[in-house]
């Protein structure tokens, strides 16, 4: 998922680790706990939300505000793939499973949500059965049934010409998934035969192969119920029917969304949500610097969870009081540059290797904000994802690039120079700065790259994630940030490396990498019960990918979040790329 997350995608379900006391961020911060907030209350201290819940409270009332610098891919739970939307959407869309609110690794714990218990596997992991909780209702008081869950999966995975933004795991792995045309084309009442609903509270998934991590898969918002009679395809986003603790009062495309309490939500059917604020406002297209100001003033939360801007970071790190209200953590994400294997001359491995050796990763790290924003990377898997093994196939002195080796590979590719384009998201200043640093590195070896900027809300739907567009526009290099869809090697690797994941819009395999050995290893891994054996397969996939030079790892992402002092129940969670868990945040003062 993109950190976007996204990029879950984009911005990732992701694993997290608290920053150690030796980190740059904590240097000189040992007395942070003694600082007072502007309202006179005692600060919990730097990194407090990576270790526990800050300002724990059950106080109800008030208005909670989120701010985003662009627009999300979609508020539709079946048509989104950004980590922050996976996180936020749980307020109005309850998936079968979700993640337990908790700090760090505790946040990776799977718990039942719409389901009464975890899935019951049979047939060696090829069949999974879930029972729904009793008494579940939509916002209009009508009952939620297993058929609504089945339909939600069908619309989100099998109508890619209509809803293309989310992952397509179910389409890939359901038995007969390649034959089903989706609910908008299939007018029969049966739907996908491999999802059965023997009664209103039971849903059974029949897979074409064993899938040992299926509970993680059904934690995606794609399993949140959708009543077929209320579905309007891509326009469903305008009138989403809530199954969660909040419902939409209003939605203005590109401007804001306002959520209010769902009066038909019943706490007896939901042990996770607290329904604290009276109102939740999501403001869109807010200037990034304004977001930082509002966050540090206690007026808003940065919805994207990608951290403060460079200028704000400098202010925070030199002000002990401000620093005490921040959380710095790994986000289980990789910042990288995809090399498009379908755009000449990067269809040749030697030209891709030339790029690998040319990039000065220290300059990229500096452009992103320094070590506090990420450690220099050399593998596909981050250190906090199972399957990671330390390796550096294209090592250069001090990670600053090697012009001679890059030119050597360029010569082996039959080139003395290359002209190409590099894409990046226009509303992400640090990504733009990183791309600019890469351009400067590449120029030294004869690779001339021109920067092309596109808005993050359309980055995957209209630009970088559209293979025809990238080929036509000669976009050979694409900036990317990725976090695991769930905390395993498979959850991280599948959607960016599997050839079957390539789609004509909403694509996240930006390299368009389709290697039969990698595809086979991924298929073998997900059917392997033994964890150690499964993780060793993920390590092999990482090595093969790096040998093929299809992406340039830049940094293992870290996030520096501003923590609003006026909000309650703030906890940085591994499940959502280090973001605060959005399920139960409240307002300290009405």
UniProtKB/TrEMBL annotation:
Pfam family, one: SBP_bac_5
Gene3D superfamilies in the record: Dipeptide-binding Protein, Domain 3, Periplasmic binding protein-like II
The entry's keywords: Signal
InterPro entries given in the database record: Peptide/Ni-bd, SBP_5, SBP_5_dom
Alphabetical list of PANTHER family matching this protein: ABC TRANSPORTER SUBSTRATE-BINDING PROTEIN, PERIPLASMIC BINDING COMPONENT OF ABC TRANSPORTER
Signal peptide: 1-32
Superkingdom assignment: Bacteria
Source taxonomy: Bacteria, Bacillati, Actinomycetota, Actinomycetes, Kitasatosporales
Name of the protein in question: ABC transporter substrate-binding protein
Domain (Solute-binding protein family) ranges: 109-501
């Amino acid at each position: 998922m993109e950190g976007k997350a996204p990029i879950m995608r984009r911005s990732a379900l992701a694993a997290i680790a608290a920053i150690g006391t030796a980190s740059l961020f904590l240097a000189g911060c040992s007395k942070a706990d003694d600082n007072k907030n502007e309202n006179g209350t005692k600060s919990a201290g730097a990194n407090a939300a990576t270790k526990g819940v800050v300002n724990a409270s059950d106080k109800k009332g008030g208005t909670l505000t989120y701010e985003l610098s662009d627009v999300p891919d979609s508020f539709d739970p079946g048509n989104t793939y950004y980590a922050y939307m996976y996180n936020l959407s749980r307020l109005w869309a309850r998936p079968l499973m979700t993640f337990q609110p908790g700090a760090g690794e505790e946040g990776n714990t799977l718990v039942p949500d719409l389901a009464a218990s975890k899935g019951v596997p049979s047939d060696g992991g090829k069949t999974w059965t879930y029972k729904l909780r009793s008494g579940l209702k939509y916002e209009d008081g009508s009952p939620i049934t297993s058929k609504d869950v089945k339909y939600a999966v069908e619309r989100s995975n099998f109508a890619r010409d209509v809803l293309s933004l989310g992952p397509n795991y179910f389409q890939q792995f359901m038995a007969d998934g390649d034959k089903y045309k989706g609910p908008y084309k299939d007018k029969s009442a049966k739907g996908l035969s491999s999802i059965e609903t023997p009664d209103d509270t039971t849903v059974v998934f029949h897979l074409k192969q064993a899938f040992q991590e299926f509970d993680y898969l059904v934690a995606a918002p794609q399993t949140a119920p959708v009543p077929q009679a209320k579905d309007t395809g891509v326009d469903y986003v305008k009138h989403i029917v809530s199954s969660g603790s909040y419902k939409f009062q209003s939605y203005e495309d590109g401007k804001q969304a306002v959520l209010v309490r769902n009066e038909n939500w019943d706490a007896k059917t939901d042990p996770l949500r607290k329904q604290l604020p009276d109102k939740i406002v999501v403001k869109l297209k807010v200037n990034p610097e304004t977001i930082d100001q509002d966050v540090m003033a206690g007026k808003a939360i940065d919805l994207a969870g990608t951290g403060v801007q460079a200028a704000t970071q400098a202010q925070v790190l030199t002000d002990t009081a401000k620093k005490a209200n921040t959380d710095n953590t790994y986000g289980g994400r990789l910042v990288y540059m995809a090399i498009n294997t379908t755009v000449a001359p990067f269809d040749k491995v030697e030209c891709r290797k030339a790029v690998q050796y040319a990039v000065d990763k220290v300059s990229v790290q500096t452009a992103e904000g320094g070590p506090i924003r990420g450690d220099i990377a050399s593998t596909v898997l981050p250190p906090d994802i199972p399957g990671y093994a330390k390796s550096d196939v294209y090592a250069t002195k001090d990670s600053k690039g090697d012009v001679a080796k890059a030119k050597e590979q360029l010569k082996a590719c039959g080139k003395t120079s290359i002209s190409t384009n590099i894409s990046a998201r226009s509303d992400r200043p640090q990504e733009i700065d990183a791309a600019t640093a890469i351009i400067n590195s590449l120029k030294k070896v004869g690779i001339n790259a021109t920067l092309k900027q596109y808005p993050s809300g359309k980055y995957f739907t209209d630009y970088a994630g559209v293979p025809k567009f990238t080929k036509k526009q000669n976009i050979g290099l694409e900036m990317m940030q990725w976090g695991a869809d769930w905390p395993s090697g498979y959850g991280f690797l599948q959607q960016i490396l599997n050839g079957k994941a390539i789609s004509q819009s909403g694509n996240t395999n930006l390299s368009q990498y389709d290697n039969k050995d990698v595809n086979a290893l991924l298929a073998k891994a997900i059917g392997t019960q033994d964890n150690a054996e499964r993780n060793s397969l993920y390590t092999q996939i990482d090595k093969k990918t790096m040998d093929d030079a299809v992406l340039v790892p830049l940094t293992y992402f870290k996030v520096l979040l501003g923590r609003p002092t006026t909000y309650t129940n703030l906890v940085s969670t591994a499940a959502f790329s280090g973001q605060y868990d959005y399920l139960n945040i409240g307002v300290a003062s009405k």
